[in-house]
Amino acid sequence: MSTKLNVNQLQDGLCTRRFGRSILFSREVDSTNKWAKELATYGASEGTVVIAETQTKGRGRLDREWISPTGGLWFSLILRPNLSPTETVKLTFVAGLAVTKVLREMFDLKTETKWPNDVLVNGRKICGVLAEMNTTGETVNFVVVGVGVNVNFDVENVFPEQLKKVATSLEKEVGRKVKLEKLFRALLERLENLYELFIKEGFNPILEEWKNYAGFLGCKVEVTGPTGKMSGVALDVDYEGALVLRLEDGTVKRVFVGDVSVRA
Ligand code: BT5
Predict the structure, then answer these.
(1) DSSP class of residue 117?
(2) Is residue 111 located within the same domain as residue 199?
(3) Atom 30 (ligand 1): residue with closest C-alpha?
């Protein structure tokens, strides 16, 4: 099976109302999020998707590098929700949940959600989400939700040493190559579904389901945040999307930004 994206098949049988009705494709781009933000500032409508076969400067949170070889699914979705910035932050969970569910349904994988923006298989990262918003005061002008899924490549061949132990791909977990276009359509459909649920019913139904898949809850974790490292037990993720941590001295802390690693 070709690892190249077949652009003509991206919309074949796509069952969405708005998501992916307009798709822009490039073989190679610096970052689909950057591209989508530019388009959004020029007025691109809600549901517009940009997708690339490879990214030369794919980005994670805090401007970290996101490695994006051919064979992965690297796309960004433009949204214009009528929400406050605090509510908009929760779109990261909507996207993470969509990927978790689709990979479970299509490939029978035991995917897990990890706070705040990861999807794991067998404890290794298979997907990352980067939601970025543009605001004027309390008004959200647009949001770009970037989704990166490691699909048709062998992490052993393409990733640097330090990532081989912590990342995985669908090819590795399923043992074969999968149709990128089919996965893309399933993701868009689920994203639209869950986005509409979020807009209609709020964060609670999303969060409850997201927590069902959160393997780190109840575990001893180390959280690296802007002010350093903290250790404790991950008790919960609350209504604002904050990680609730019981520190070793017994105090309970809410964490809004950071990276979690589960300790053995
Ligand atoms: C993320 O950041 O996980 C968000 C990744 C979002 C990527 C998508 S691809 C389409 C769109 N366009 C973009 O430019 N970005 C979005 P964060 O939680 O900060 O994780 C970043 C860390 O994950 C890096 O520092 C590496 O340790 C690791 N990493 C880098 N590339 C990876 C990969 N392909 N798979 C798994 N882990 C990776």
Answers:
(1) T
(2) yes
(3) 66
